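Re-run with default settings, no changes from the original entry. Doing this only to confirm the output is reproducible before filing.
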Amino acid sequence: MKMKVKHFYILYLLLLLPAILSAQTSKPISSKPKNGEGLHSFMIRNHLSPKEDMEEFLQLNKGKFGSKNSLLLHESYLIPVKQTNLFESLFGKERETFPIESDEMKGSVFYLVSGHGGPDPGAIGKYGSHELHEDEYAYDITLRLAKKLKENGAKVHIIIQDPDDGIRDEQILKYDNHETCMGETIPLNQIDRLKQRTNKVNECFKKDTEKYRRALVLHLDSRSKRKQIDVFFYHYKKSKNGKILATTLRDIFNEKYGEHQPSRGFEGTVSDRNLYILRNTTPVSVFVELGNIQNYRDQQRFVIADNRQALANWLYLGLKKDFDNNK
């Protein structure tokens, strides 16, 4: 998209999102004892260890006990919610252990496919004296989205994987060809690559039982250096739910650009494309082009880590809205 210079702002100042939710672990819940229930039984029923959690439980409910810390039927006792951490080695050593934020996406499953990888770097852009490789940036944004989804209760299958990279904060993401398709070597032939990742999505889909299942494929586009573009969303022409999801994602981006750059405008579109992966994946799927890797202004969307996170956050908000609408 063409845009006047006076309307251009460095995205890292504009795309940051506040935290969606504070962690649930800081807010205790309450429970009343049953008739005849002793302290130990009450704690066990509420998933507490009498040995490990007794001191915290007594302190939290100070003044609510009878003799010898007996429970009173008319009292509601605060139950400390224990911190629960998740683990995903693909996120890298600094981020592989992370807390749960919420369960608002519980009951959803996502199949996240970052474009290219292995022997295929995808599009390559020039950024000063450096090269930007499409597969590295698509993969980083995919990992950030996967983490956000997992933090909020979703089940996530990361289809393209690189055990060496993790989520990275550098501007220039070093290129390698270590990516696999869930442990399998990625073939050089393009059709074989597409079949392999499509088959992996479908294999995972068959094993999942959740009602809400969606696939998202993330790519960067390559056009003329002068061509600035917005984010585009594609769906299979026969997929009604795919079009709905693509439109929901587009609307979230339009809304966020309106908040952060009201004079800029947003021209990202939704359309159908006869792409192999959209045509052959079993779950509802959307293909996302995140910008032009050749255009300097679009490159700011990728090289700045906070902007990569913002893209992931906005995609998350769109997926959450679609999930909520399908409950």
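The two ends are 36 Å apart (CA to CA). Residues 1-26 have pLDDT under 50 and may be disordered.
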